User: Fold this.
Amino acid sequence: MKKLIIINGTMGVGKTTVCQGLYQQFKKSVWLDGDWCWMMHPWDFNEENKEMVKQNISFLLRSFLENSNFEYVLFSWVIHRNDLMEWLLDQLKDYQLQIYKFSLVCSEETLERRMLSDGRSLDSIKESIERNKLYYEMDTIKIDTTNKSINVVVGEIKNLICSLN
Assistant:
């Protein structure tokens, strides 16, 4: 049975960095970063673009799931509300999957430090800190990345996936 690993979390918490290491831990794996579907200039968060991005994410994930070369499909994105998670899983209901949902969280201080080192704006940092609180309410396994190296976080997630099989 294919395994869908969803990694969500607020901006700057480390989703991309964690997934860069995590997908390489599993043979026959592929990774989609939802942010890749938003690579446009100028960035415009309007209804038409939101629908296009959702369609593209659905198409790509379904394509990965239909490909016999992949056993593990990783997907990282902000997904800050349960209704967005439900929408995503509804798009994939035709597949028999083992689903793992992880929310990366961290302290406000850690998040601010990481985002400042990435050169993020103060408005983005404030928004991300506020949004970080939402992930504690989601139906996901929480992984606190505060004061942890990427290798430690990747190891924690990998161990959980292997123990839940």
